[in-house]
Design brief:
By secondary structure, the protein is mostly beta strands. It has no helices and eleven strands. It has strands spanning 3-7, 11-13, 18-25, 33-39, 46-52, 58-60, 68-73, 78-83, 92-99, 110-111, 115-120.
Length: 121
């Protein structure tokens, strides 16, 4: 019943921007957390950031702080990852994940399919 789907990836030049969307189905937006993750070829999956519904706070991977922003539009059941000043090292498949609690967890219950982000030099 709970489903998440990431979209909005593509090819962009270094220094450019993309906005990824995570469509969320089956989670109540007054009690949820949505995380963004990415995985580059040959590398482990890493957490990019998380949005908590408890207070709308966000956390970010150090390497993306100041460049990436997570936000939500509850009316559209969508969480966004705005990525600015993209770098080639940001190239990865990006995933969104959810948990039916208001704080960012260690583990997520639900995962969506990823969307490819490729940043050229």
């Amino acid at each position: 019943e709970v489903q998440l789907q990431a979209s909005g990836g593509g090819l962009v030049q270094a220094g450019g921007s993309l906005r990824l969307s995570c469509a969320v189905f089956g989670l109540t937006f007054d009690d949820y957390a949505i995380g963004w993750f990415r995985q580059a070829p040959g590398k482990k999956r890493e957490g990019v950031g998380c949005l908590s519904s408890s207070d709308g706070s966000t956390t970010y991977l150090d390497s993306v702080k100041g460049r990436f922003t997570i936000s939500s539009d509850n009316a559209k059941n969508t969480v966004y990852l705005q990525m600015n000043n993209l770098k080639p090292e940001d190239t990865a498949i990006y995933y969104c994940a959810g948990w039916g609690g208001s704080y960012c967890p260690y583990e997520y219950d639900y995962w969506g399919q990823g969307t490819q982000v490729t940043v050229s030099s």
